[in-house]
From TrEMBL:
Pfam families in the record: GerE, Response_reg
Keywords from the UniProt entry: DNA-binding, Phosphoprotein, Transcription, Transcription regulation
Protein name stated in the entry: DNA-binding response regulator
A molecular-function term among this protein's GO annotations: DNA binding
Length: 267
């Protein structure tokens, strides 16, 4: 597999502070060597479990946390849930690192508020790319993967990537090489729940335009691409997405895409 750097813009080299969280010291040392000082990334601290991660994040206020899933005591998913629910300052973008590529881990990580999911054997350039994307509140998941997650959320998908009829494997290549699903995280403050929607009409509680924007998010379009497709300004698209977050009680664009696909899926 090639490890040639991905093309990136000037935005990719903006300073990014990172907290490393893994119960294996050797893994933390390897990650530090891999990314510290690369493309504006600075490792500001380390933690050996979820509780240490929550404490260190409060003290160091990193832009991004590279988080192991399985750790003694508080695991990475619970730590992510607490970090994403922290009040008083902007929570960091969380990139989950794990040796396990099962669907259940991916779904739990996204539900907790993680932005990306990487296998520990991902090449350095992909880890660096994921860090910069998380710092900007971005994630990369293809529509096919999102469809798979909808099935899992509804309990209709087969268990594990090796099961008969299973969707695409959810490894590092699938998560990071596919169409982008991009957007900033905001706190969900609304109430109420939308009912089923269809291409011909929005769910209850959503406007036609909000539903149109949400469906384009679920297709993997970026904010700029949605603005171009609907002949609207970028701030207007961001406003619609913010309303969707509030009305659907979600906190990031991946969750929005999953929710839209759930609402479009016949029950």
């Amino acid at each position: 597999m090639s490890t040639a750097p991905f093309p990136h813009s000037e935005q990719d080299t903006a300073p990014v502070s990172v907290l490393l969280v893994d119960d294996e010291q050797l893994m933390r040392a390897g990650l530090r060597m891999m990314i510290d000082g690369t493309d504006g990334i600075t490792v500001v601290g380390e933690a050996a479990d979820g509780q240490e991660a929550v404490t260190a994040s409060a003290a160091l206020d990193p832009d991004v946390v590279l988080m192991d899933i399985r750790m003694p005591g508080m695991d990475g998913i619970e730590a992510t849930r607490r970090l994403r629910g922290t009040e008083g300052h902007e929570s960091p973008g969380v990139v989950m690192l794990t040796a396990f590529d099962t669907d259940t881990f991916l779904l739990d990580a996204l539900r907790a508020g993680a932005l990306s999911f990487l296998l520990k054997d991902s090449p350095p350039d992909r880890v660096v790319q994921a860090v910069h994307e998380a710092a900007r509140g971005e994630s990369r998941f293809s529509p096919a993967v999102l469809q798979r997650l909808v099935g899992l959320a509804a309990g209709t998908a087969p268990d594990g990537p090796g099961s008969e009829g299973a969707g695409p494997a959810l490894g590092a290549d699938t998560a990071l090489d596919a169409d982008r699903v991009i957007g900033a995280n905001t706190a969900a403050t609304g109430s109420g729940e939308a009912g089923p929607g269809t291409p011909s009409g929005p769910p209850q509680g959503l406007t036609d335009r909000e539903w149109e924007v949400g469906r384009l998010v679920a297709q993997g379009l970026t904010n700029s691409e949605i603005a171009d497709a609907l002949f609207l300004s970028l701030p207007t698209i961001k406003t619609h997405i913010g309303h969707l977050f509030e009305k659907l009680l979600i906190t990031n664009r991946v969750q929005l895409a999953i929710r839209v696909l759930e609402l479009e899926t016949p029950h």
